[in-house]
Amino acid sequence: MFDTTGKIAIAQLAFFVAAILPAQYVLFKHGLKGLLGWLFITLFCVIRIIGAALIIHDESGHNPISEAALIISSVAIAPMIIALGGIAHESFGSIELYRPFLFGWAPDLITHVITIGAIVMLVIGFLNFEGTNKSAQDMKTGLDLIRAGGVVLIGVWAMITAIVLLAVGVSVAVICLIVRILYTVLSAFINTASFNFRTGGTLAEHIVLDVLPEFILVLALLTAGIMSRNLKYEAEAALRSKDSQHPVEERRRR
User: Fold this and answer.
1) By residue range, what is the domain housing residue 61?
2) Which residues of the chain have pLDDT under 50?
3) DUF7702 domain: from which residue to which, for each copy (predicted)?
């Protein structure tokens, strides 16, 4: 008999196994310009599938959830943050000549470096906080790192929001993402059994604050990706049209 965590893992496994196929389709259709965004959405689906499968395996054998499953589940949201930044970057690729510095390569690089740092803090934090034979100091250090990593992810979200909110079709994903991040962060700060990432919580709490935001986020982004699947061809057509209007500039480029 599965507990709350096991039931959620079953739902996640079913959803992300189904979602990974359209994610790969969108990745293929968007090509190199959309690689940064849609590759990380695919990666997010893969991580969720692996994490859910590990939890189901542990619970079906009546074993405690392994550290690997806990860590994979805790840091899986990070690729989605990078994906949102990549999608925003792709959305403004068609107006490259007119976009300000805000949409250039520098914000992408900064976002990736900070996000990787947050992932490292979360992984080290969970390694110190979870498991057996951990001292009180180890657990305190781990909890501090988890809190710090979560706060950093909120900061990254705020950096990306200014760009993503301007991209049609992903506003819902931005809102769902901050709900999901806040749930992880607040559960590290609120030391109660009913609202804590370690002790669990009610099934309704997990569904509303954990499962549904991720499901809606992925569905919103995949819908936007499918609707804009011909973006690269439209951009190429617009470029050809511009060249035909300025034949002198075209000859100079050649």
Assistant:
1) 4-253
2) 94-95, 97-99, 102, 248, 250, 253
3) 3-229
